[in-house]
Amino acid sequence: MTTRRTFLQGAAGALGLSGALAGSAAQAMPTDRPKKFDEEYDVVVVGAGGAGLAAAAHAAEKGLRVLILEKMAFPGGSSAICGGGSLVVGTELQKRAGEKDSNELLFKDIIQTGGGLNNKDVVRTFVDNHLAVYNWFMGLGGKLQSDLLFSSVSANRGVEIEPNSVLQACLAQAKKFGAALYTKTAAKRLAFDGKTKRIVGVFAEKEGKTVSFGAKKGVILASGGFARNKALLAKYVPRMTNTLTICGKGCDGDGLKMALAYGADVADMPYIKATFAFNTDPHSINDSHYTYWEGGIVVNRAGKRFVNESIPKKDVGDYVLEQPGGIGYCVYDEPTRRISLKTARNNGSVLESEERGLVFKGNTVEEAAAKAGLDPKAVKETVERYNRDIREKGYDTVFGRKFLSGNMGELREIKEGPFYVLPSTAVLLATYCGVKINGKMQVVDVFGDVIPGLWASGEVAGGFHGRTYLSATAFISAVVFGWAAADNVLKA
């Protein structure tokens, strides 16, 4: 008797494919493992970005036989093009600066920024391990871009990591202990063992052929987000479908879809946000600036403020995208410009934007506004009202701004020329959401049960950020969670 299951298996075989790559009728079903894998390892890591390479390095150095699958021609993913700003408590830079900070304060800041919607177990895993992992990858060869600290919510704890130094160090460590890296090899489906009821490998496409890779201890998904997948964006957060995107070219949601086939739950999907502030013709991640966090304000085409500029940059981005043309005009003066040029995360972008003619300069606020195509009178009135509030009240009475950024930085008047207007927009850099995981990085299904043999870390996983992203946590959390996933595979 031919059942639906045997029919599907027969059809797949007739096409010369495994069940993993069968037609649409089988795409969202568990895919049986082959009788014999083409190659077998202890751990298969899907994706060679910050999370994947950290996972591979840690698993390999602890004696596991590791395979890394990367669908692009080279490793790195979005981590290779990120800015590298990272929040770390307890660094030597903090100690030398005499900065008062703690893990509990960082935990509180992450939870509050996320609106309390974060998975607290996941946040706790990050907070408890981030300094040790930072010291680990710096010891392997990671480097800093500068010796400057930058502020975040409640403390000066931000460091400028050179992302590619960390990626190279982790890859070298992984290879040193025998890990294999297959590039141009796209993972397509997870392999399931019906007897043990666990994920035991991966089906992938390599040189036009389907290849199966066994994973005796488990699979770690570190395949990135889905910022380049318009269909998934339209499904989960339609307002982001047509937003400008800058991210790794492989961010198509492959790992998310593979996990969904096994009933994986998702987390933080409604909270996908674009990042403010990029100039209006962004070429890379380095085209963002923070003049509004250094002393400036943001106005719309009518010359009016519309947001408390001190809130997280992704929340500012939400407000900006609601304005005409999706543009927010950053208005600032010469002292703010000079401060921005000294700040590690600002100098290149501000100068480049000026050189490309994207910044409008005037001896008065009205002159700069007119050059930017704004109503000079309206912008002048907005600046004067803002300055008066600071001078007389010490804070902004219109939107309640009390600090430059987060809970730090004293507001100052915009009053010393020349004056500048920099048209800016919000860009989708990452999705910061995905499959639901627990504090051990294990993927959890819609019933709250662990999917045996499956871990996830980095941008493919959700739960860490909650309602919004805390600036400078993406890269460091990816590496920490990759390391933590491997550490928990070792304990499994």
From TrEMBL:
<dbReference type="Pfam" id="PF00890">
    <property type="entry name" value="FAD_binding_2"/>
</dbReference>
<dbReference type="InterPro" id="IPR027477">
    <property type="entry name" value="Succ_DH/fumarate_Rdtase_cat_sf"/>
</dbReference>
<dbReference type="InterPro" id="IPR010960">
    <property type="entry name" value="Flavocytochrome_c"/>
</dbReference>
<keyword id="KW-0732">Signal</keyword>
<feature type="signal peptide">
    <location>
        <begin position="1"/>
        <end position="28"/>
    </location>
</feature>
<dbReference type="InterPro" id="IPR050315">
    <property type="entry name" value="FAD-oxidoreductase_2"/>
</dbReference>
<protein>
    <submittedName>
        <fullName>Flavocytochrome c</fullName>
    </submittedName>
</protein>
<feature type="domain" description="FAD-dependent oxidoreductase 2 FAD-binding">
    <location>
        <begin position="42"/>
        <end position="468"/>
    </location>
</feature>
<dbReference type="InterPro" id="IPR036188">
    <property type="entry name" value="FAD/NAD-bd_sf"/>
</dbReference>
<comment type="similarity">
    <text>Belongs to the FAD-dependent oxidoreductase 2 family. FRD/SDH subfamily.</text>
</comment>
<dbReference type="InterPro" id="IPR003953">
    <property type="entry name" value="FAD-dep_OxRdtase_2_FAD-bd"/>
</dbReference>
<keyword id="KW-0274">FAD</keyword>
<keyword id="KW-0560">Oxidoreductase</keyword>
<dbReference type="InterPro" id="IPR006311">
    <property type="entry name" value="TAT_signal"/>
</dbReference>
<keyword id="KW-0285">Flavoprotein</keyword>
